[in-house]
Amino acid sequence: MHLVAFLYVLGFLSSVWAFNTAAVNNFFERNAAPGASKHTNNWAVLVCASRYWFNYRHMANALGMYRTVKRLGIPDSNIILMLADDASCNLRNKFPGSIYANPGRHLDLYGDNIEVDYRGYEVTVENFIRVLTGRMDPSVPRSKRLLSDERSNVFVYMTGHGGNEFLKFQDNEEISAFDIADAFEQMYQKKRYNEIFFMIDTCQANSMYSKFYSPNILATGSSEVGENSYSYANDNDIGVAVIDAFTHYILEYMEGINKTSQMSMQDLFNTYDRRGLMHVVVEFFHRRNDLRLSNSAEKSVMSALLSGRLNRSLRTPGWELVLSGMQARKRGLCIACTFASCRYISHQYPACETPVASKVTVALEARASFLPTALR
């Protein structure tokens, strides 16, 4: 009898909570300013897909990004951290229980305040896809779930060894560009995000988001198709490279901003330098007339990474824009198009096979009036 009464009260309280939540959401929707962002919360999914001691830097990449997003306001409850190996406990580690991302070892990224949600052999392609899509077994605790909704801005960071349209997990299996693209589409269909900022540090990183077709996604990577991603520095005592160049420079830039910073994505992109990064690309994706992306380079880094909104402006459906960091020093933000948009924009080059072709660049620059002002 007592159990029945308890369950009845519990059900009543749950219904009251659900009603109040719906009422609060409806209130904000009714009173929102015209054109205001639907964004209310932020999430981060950080993945180190590599294991073994010689991939120490990939763990440092993910932990460095983990520290940064926490410092800038995303709580542990909204961060899913996946580490395929634990280099801090490796017998080769001269500094047990610690992970450093710079040769001087000024900052221990592991420390005492870290929550790893998926560790070791839990880091699989299947689990990563399940985290994104929400297709979890009922037994999985909330701490291992991405509990995002249509009001969530989600930052997805991945690091590891990859190639053309694949990233290795545990040196045992691979996730393809199609897998990630389809997972993001499921998230869109299930209203699991407002906007996604996808960042990847691996060889041929650009290829990993070449198949994206869902709206409201900003993507950047460390290398073009056919290009490698490089480590930044070695530590003689640790004996291996401690961080990758792309992630190092991103984190270095982010150290100079805080939660109220007004630095823009354009400012971040302007720091991309071939001498340090070899090559960097950035893409904006959209799919439908009513979900067109715009001058994303003008939005603040904080808003892009954590809490912002990709503003809307006129842009032709199907457009994919690439900012080439390789030529940034020579020509400002050099504009080029991918093969998909090459077919759409310039029919005289239907057989363009390279991701960034100079002949397509010329054709696109001739139509610069279609570009947002900041990118001309």
TrEMBL record:
Active-site residues (renumbered): 161, 203
GO MF: GPI-anchor transamidase activity
Pfam families in the record: Peptidase_C13
UniProt keyword annotations, A-Z: GPI-anchor biosynthesis, Signal
Organism domain of life: Eukaryota
GO biological process, one term: GPI anchor biosynthetic process
Secretion signal, residue range per the UniProt entry: 1-18
Pathway(s): Glycolipid biosynthesis; glycosylphosphatidylinositol-anchor biosynthesis
InterPro entries xrefs: GPI_transamidase (IPR028361), Peptidase_C13 (IPR001096)
Keyword Signal: yes
Keyword Signal applies: yes
Gene Ontology cellular component list: GPI-anchor transamidase complex
Family, per entry: Belongs to the peptidase C13 family.
Protein name stated in the entry: GPI-anchor transamidase
Organism of origin: Leucocoprinus birnbaumii
